From TrEMBL:
Keyword annotations from UniProtKB, A to Z: DNA-binding, Pyridoxal phosphate, Transcription, Transcription regulation
GO MF terms, alphabetically ordered: DNA binding; DNA-binding transcription factor activity; pyridoxal phosphate binding
Identification of the protein by name: GntR family transcriptional regulator
Family: In the C-terminal section; belongs to the class-I pyridoxal-phosphate-dependent aminotransferase family.
Organism name: Methylovirgula ligni
PANTHER family: HTH-TYPE TRANSCRIPTIONAL REGULATORY PROTEIN GABR, TRANSCRIPTIONAL REGULATORY PROTEIN
Length: 485
């Protein structure tokens, strides 16, 4: 078996003992420092002798000595390994980090990601697909083909920061055909997920102290992307059907607004869909007051009760709507592929930003996605999971009603992968969060999504990643925590 690495051993030129003793001593020191740990393989005697420029017999003697002392075990065919029980004899103590010499960290304060579910544990997310349904075989095959194609097409070096031409073409076609946009590939920039899209958009359109409007409950990482770019954030009220446009208009009358961030497809976190009449009025307000609308259409494909509504950006003539989409919900968040559709001068600038922070995206992943789109496999996958998630939505609603019906209220979302669950106004969700009793599930709360004002207690609970049994367990655990709180 090939070893991933050979340790670089430093053997003292002089010192006590023979050369083989000093080699053995060097290895023991590396074990005691924790650089070599139980099960690590040592270089073959020939290789080590060559590296150290000593006779092979000397290394054999050193290994024999280590084996006699119990530091290593030798398998005739596989080689020499640090003994599995070595931790008993040589406590693994990593060296302490050096004292910090650069003082306090000075950059902008950046928050960690919102929810960070522990790997492999069942939990409430904020609306992500079930990892077990991700078409891994199709993805693996698409990657194999993409790696070969990328090599043939000489795309494995440095390339266009806006993304590979083939994916920009595919996305442009998809947006024009299915969402009524009017784009060419020059209107498209591929990003690492829509999170990077929001960051580079913010840095491209906002100057320090420009006002950017968010709904009073919104997607916090988007707020952070804009504040890092220097924006001053203001909250617009949120009505039962999305942003309160009377309030937005009032803000625009007294403040010069540079941009408005929205998720009109399914409002984050409350899941409501912005009505067609409100969409028309919003576009009229953008024209009247000259603000940019950043439309984050993060889970466009999951509309259950009616056809997906066209985005605000569909048929946009004004060039004031910047559209953001993602493959995270239809394929996998781990692929990190999102995109921006916008006028070419903004796309160019966004590409420059990508050049500054990441240089470019990942051509193999991008070509694999092209293959999944163009072969129709993505559409087939979406159809399959759409039906499964629709069923799960019903099951989740029933379990919520049965277990929490007397403690909380909710509307069944017409689309998206999460429910918005409202608790009694006097229920102290913050206290529950702080106390987090044994077994209480983690979830995204209204307080975490609030811009400014205090939020009524509510939670965003993703349902698509849980099967019926897992939903039941999680909702029961939530009920126990709420009853105990
Ligand atoms: C509203 C919203 N925008 C953007 C994202 C980011 O998605 P990604 O960066 O994985 O494309 C998410 C992820 O959950 C989201 O909920």
């Amino acid at each position: 078996m090939l070893r991933p690495w050979n340790p670089n051993l430093i053997v003292r030129a002089e010192g006590r003992g023979s050369l083989s003793v000093r080699i053995a001593q060097a290895i023991i020191e590396e074990i005691q420092r924790g650089r070599l740990t139980a099960g690590d393989s040592l270089p073959g005697t020939r290789d080590l002798a060559k590296d150290l420029e000593v006779n092979r017999k000397t290394v054999v003697q050193a290994y024999d000595e280590l084996a006699a002392q119990g530091w290593v075990t030798t398998d005739q065919r596989r080689g020499t390994f640090i003994a599995r029980n070595i931790r008993d004899g040589a406590p693994h103590k990593p060296e302490p980090e050096p004292a910090q010499t650069f003082g306090e960290l000075r950059g902008s304060a950046v928050k960690p990601p919102l929810l960070w579910p522990r790997q492999g544990k069942v939990s409430f997310d904020d609306g992500v697909p079930d990892q077990r349904l991700i078409p891994t075989m199709a993805i693996a095959q698409a990657y194999a083909g993409a790696a070969r194609a990328a090599s043939r097409q000489r795309l494995l070096g440095y390339g266009d920061p806006r993304g590979t031409e083939a994916l920009r073409q595919s996305i442009s076609k998809m947006l024009n055909m299915t969402r009524g946009l009017n784009t060419t590939p020059d209107n498209i920039c591929v990003t690492r997920g829509s999170q990077m899209a929001l960051y580079v958009i913010a840095h491209s359109i906002v100057a320090k102290d420009d006002t950017v409007i968010f709904e009073e409950l919104t997607y916090p990482p988007a707020v952070q992307a804009f504040t890092l770019a220097g924006a001053k954030v203001q909250a617009a009220k949120l009505g039962p059907e999305g942003i309160d446009l009377n309030h937005l208009e009032a803000i625009c009358r007294r403040t010069r607004v540079r941009a408005v961030y929205l998720t009109p497809g399914h409002q984050f976190p409350t899941t409501v869909v912005l009505r067609p009449s409100a969409r028309l009025r919003l576009r009229a307000l953008a024209a009247q007051f000259g603000f940019i609308v950043v439309e984050d259409d993060y889970d466009h494909e999951f509309q259950f009760d009616h056809q997906p509504m066209f985005p605000l950006a569909s048929n946009d003539q004004s060039g004031q709507i910047v559209y953001v989409g993602s493959f995270s919900k239809v394929l996998s968040p781990s692929l990190r592929v999102g995109y921006v559709a916008a006028p070419t001068h903004l796309i160019q600038q966004i590409g420059n930003w990508i050049g500054a922070i990441d240089r470019q995206g990942d051509p193999i992943t991008e070509l694999a996605i092209v293959e999944l789109i163009e072969s129709g496999q993505l559409r087939r996958h979406i159809k399959r999971v759409h039906a499964i998630f629709d069923k799960r939505r019903t099951t989740f609603a029933e379990a919520l009603q049965d277990e929490l019906g007397d403690l909380a209220s909710f509307d069944i979302p017409t689309g998206g992968l999460a429910f918005w669950v409202r608790f009694a106004e006097d229920f102290d969700l913050g206290k529950l969060e702080q106390r987090r009793p044994q077994g209480a599930p983690q979830f995204l709360t209204s307080a975490q999504c609030a811009v400014g004002a205090k939020a009524k207690p509510a939670a965003r609970l993703g349902f698509a990643s849980l099967d019926a049994h897992e939903m039941q367990t999680m909702i029961e655990r939530l009920r126990d925590a709420v009853e105990g709180g």
